[in-house]
Amino acid sequence: MPPKKAPAKDAGGDEKDYDLENFMLQKRLEVIQHRIQLKEEVIAECQRKLEEQRKRRGNTPAGRTPVLARLGAVLADLEAQSKQELERRREVVAEMTRQYNEMQNSFSDRIEDLKAQVKKAQEDIVEVENTKEATRKEKEDEIAKKDVTIRQLTHKMEAMAFEFADMLKEVLDKMSQRIEVTHSGWSRTDRMGGDDSAAPFMKQPLISSLQEFELVPHGDLPPEQAG
């Protein structure tokens, strides 16, 4: 009876080892072929001996004829058994060859499938690398644009700071000039006899505040502000 076809996977779900099975099938095939060769040699040897006995039958005593007849029957039966065994062996070899070819085809299909998967993975890697490079360049361009914007805003802030400082200095200069004019008028009024028409303005807290910025000397304040 021919051996049953091995399942594609074992009980654990692992894939078969095709190389090992191919090796085992090849060895079994070699053993069967060797046995067939031995059987054929035995049959040939028996046939040769039978032929020799037949040639010598003419010189053989009559009493030995039944022995040769039995020997011929045994050889005929052995030959029939050998042919039957040979046919069975050929069927086994044919089945094993079919299984071997089927496994080879399955193995080749598996190889082609793996090659396709490898090719697809390589294409995916190239696509990811290209996308990564494009994203990196896009981010670098965005960062460069933001750096330019930051530098421009920094320059504008510095320019505005200098402009504001100039404006503040100009305002302070004008305020100082006005205070000097007002203070000069107050000094003249004081020397002219104590006219108090300008005194209320000079007594305001503005004089004390400007003194902190050293816009009005301490010695120029009226007595009530200096105290």
From TrEMBL:
It comes from the Eukaryota. Keywords: Cell projection, Cilium, Coiled coil, Cytoplasm, Cytoskeleton, Flagellum. It is found in: Cytoplasm, Cytoskeleton, Flagellum axoneme. Residues 36-156 form a coiled coil. The keyword Coiled coil applies. Component of the nexin-dynein regulatory complex (N-DRC), a key regulator of ciliary/flagellar motility which maintains the alignment and integrity of the distal axoneme and regulates microtubule sliding in motile axonemes. Belongs to the DRC12 family. PANTHER family: COILED-COIL DOMAIN-CONTAINING PROTEIN 153. Component of the nexin-dynein regulatory complex (N-DRC). This is Dynein regulatory complex protein 12.
